[in-house]
Amino acid sequence: MAVIKRDETLSPLSLSDFKPQPKLVTRETQVARPRFPVIDAHNHLSLPGFGGWDTRPVAELLDHLDQADVRVYVDLDGGWGEDILHTHLDHFKAAAPERFRIFGGVDWTKWAELGDRFPDWAAGRLRQQAARGAQGLKIWKMLGLTVRDHQNQLVAVDDPRLDVIWATAGELKLPITIHIADPVAFFDPVDNTNERWEELHDNVDWQFPSPPFPTFLTIVNGLAAAVARHPKTIWVGAHVGCYAENLTWVGALLDRCPNFYVDISERIGELGRQPYSARRFFLKYADRILFGTDRPVDENIYPTYYRFLETDDEYFDYGNADIPRQGRWRIYGLYLPDDVLHKVYYKNAERIMLGIE
Q1: Beta carbons of 291 and 285 less than 8 angstroms apart
Q2: 74 bridge partner residues
Q3: Which helix (DSSP H) or strand (DSSP E) does residue 63 occupy?
Q4: Could you identify which of 22, 71, 129, 312 might form a hypothetical disulfide with 134, taking C-beta atoms 3.0 to 4.6 angstroms apart as the criterion?
Q5: Is-contact 341 335, C-beta < 8 A?
């Protein structure tokens, strides 16, 4: 009988070269169009890498959205500044007023100049933005991480000086979409235990070690405190409440605060690797979850999200890349029932973003 000699001197393999091909034979369902019409409640129109739609014909964008049956597109870029807000209102909203919702924001750089007057000034600017046509307020993750006051002190998410801004949003019936913190691994040491090692090495400015930054839990608990303090204001926690890795924590905040909602943008990678917990979460909080992608409009992104929500496909790629963007794992579909899909795709955002009961 022939003796098979094994090569015991295999060369070390670089992680960047490791691209295993699964041998599982599983179903691959194509879902080009969703079961129900869609409101994309979290996206961007002009950020780098998002297609540069502010320099392209609006009709071309609408064609892409029509193909995916996206009826309303919520653009959060106005949160970067009033110049962008005005540009997008004039370019997109004016061209197709029923298809776009453009959010405003807060210019945190003015705090050093205005001092103690800043919070009231920011609330006044929000009123002006709403009068101009803004239909929501976007808060970026700089709050809690880098925003500083006139005394160069880091501003906490639940700083009571910000209450006038949150209360004004509630008075104006402007939902607040808030993205604070980031994936938990971004706050951990970037060593051989970090599950997003490749992503963080490709994006070194996404690392937030403590110190000098606050801990992850300090930031998300600050969000929970602010939401609880303003029950008349509608809050949408971006990226599954900013803590997709811990649906128990997010669910507890949803239970405590009926004014809190979440969107699922850029987190199907997290949700899809915990399909049992995620499905239970969607079924329990079906009235509180909004669809969103936070991804460029292309032929792949919407079908991938629809496949995740509608099918029971197993172990599939969520990023259409050899190395997934967020981590070396694959995801599983949730196979949600129609009544839940209808709410997540459209009805919840219709109520929160469009103000239609």
Answers
A1: no
A2: 101
A3: helix 58-67
A4: 129
A5: no
Q: Which amino acid is at 97?
A: P
pLDDT, one tens digit per residue, over 15-26 is 778 888 889 999
Give the position of tokens 């239909």.
Answer: 135
In three-state secondary structure terms, 31 is: coil
Instruction: Output the CA–CA distances (angstroms, integers) from residue 176 to 99, 122, 165, 272, in the order listed.
Output: 19, 14, 10, 26
Buried b (16+ CB within 10 A) or exposed e, 79-106: bbebebbbbbbebbbeeeeebbbbbbbb
pLDDT digits (tens, 9 = 90+) for 248-276: 999 999 999 999 999 999 999 999 999 99
- For residues 90 and 129, give the distance between their C-alpha atoms in angstroms, rounded to a whole number: 13
For residue 262 the two structure tokens come to 């979440």
Q: What burial class does residue 47 get, using C-beta atoms within 10 Å of its C-beta: 0-12 exposed, 13-18 middle, 19+ buried?
A: middle
Token pair recorded at residue 288: 């509180």
Place of tokens 């029923």: 98
Residue 39, phi then psi, degrees to nearest 5: -110, 120
Q: What angle do CA 355, 346, 35 make, to 5 degrees?
A: 165
Domains along the sequence of the chain with CATH? 39-352 (3.20.20.140)
Q: At what angle do helices 216-229 and 163-171 cross, to 10 degrees?
A: 50
Peptide bond into 211 cis (omega under 30): yes
Using one digit for the tens of pLDDT, what is the confidence trace for 34-88? 999 999 999 999 878 788 888 889 999 999 999 999 999 999 999 999 999 999 9
Quote the CA–CA distance of 69 and 297 in Å, as a whole number.
Answer: 12
